[in-house]
Amino acid sequence: KQEVTQIPAALSVPEGENLVLNCSFTDSAIYNLQWFRQDPGKGLTSLLLIQSSQREQTSGRLNASLDKSSGRSTLYIAASQPGDSATYLCAGRGADRGSTLGRLYFGRGTQLTVWP
Amino acid sequence: KAGVTQTPRYLIKTRGQQVTLSCSPISGHRSVSWYQQTPGQGLQFLFEYFSETQRNKGNFPGRFSGRQFSNSRSEMNVSTLELGDSALYLCASSLGGAPYEQYFGPGTRLTVT
Questions:
Q1: Any chain A CB within 8 A of the CB of B56?
Q2: Over the stretch A43-81, which tens digit does the pLDDT of each residue have?
Q3: Subunit contact A42:B107, Cβ cutoff 8 A
């Protein structure tokens, strides 16, 4: 069974800092990894998806990397802003009880606060 | 293109009652997945439907059921509600094929009293 861990659980930084959020997973047979953002009481917003054959994806100030061999993914946020404050979740798609299409396994998230 | 919509957004029910939640996927998406989010357990997978067929199911009791209609809209039903069913229920849609990127709705906040 895939287990996903995110470190740190919470992070508070001043505006302008470059940030690194970490995600680790136990089963390297991962199909893809997706990073999400969740604002309080809201749904999840997809940020980046990395296929298992890819090493990284970039969108604006966000860059996500994937290292299947070490079971790790990293989300890098450049020049953080107060509007980046949210909970960031990573989720890996992996096999599940004979279902070749698998399902998403979520970490518990990193709660980010960026103060001005 | 409209995103994933969920109705109702908020719901208060009494223990023992049943509830039905609705999800409309992004146009063209054929897969709908349901998740339960609680502070204690985080996000847990309930089930996934594709072309009206359940193709994957999480570890939830039989009180939790779902279905998908021919237009890909999905409903989730919880019978005999318990206090522990209070949660944010999230629906996600995807094309159903590679790359399996999922798009989430705003959720339905269910409170059981």
A1: yes
A2: 999 999 999 889 999 999 999 999 999 999 999 999 999
A3: yes
**Which band of pLDDT confidence, cut at 50, 70 and 90, is reported for residue A101?**
low
On whether the CB atoms of residues B110 and B90 are closer than 8 A, the answer is no
Q: How confident is the model at residue B36 (pLDDT cuts 50, 70, 90)?
A: very high
Share of chain A above pLDDT 70, in %: 94
CA-based nearest distance A77→chain B, Å: 21
Q: Considering only CB atoms, which residues of chain A are within 8 Å of chain B?
A: 31-32, 34, 36, 41-46, 49, 51, 89, 91, 93, 96, 99, 101-109
Cα–Cα nearest to A103, from A88, A90, A87, A92: A92
Which residue, A33, A35, A29, A14, is CA-closest to A79? A14
Taking residue B82's Cβ as centre, other Cβ atoms within 10 Å add up to: 12
Q: Which residues contact B40 (CB under 8 A, 6 or more apart)?
A: none
Summarize pLDDT for B70-83 with one digit per residue, the tens. Answer: 999 999 999 999 99
Contact B90 A44 (CB under 8 A): yes
Give the span between the Cα atoms of B27 and A43, in whole angstroms: 18
User: What are the beta bridge partners of residue A4?
Assistant: A25
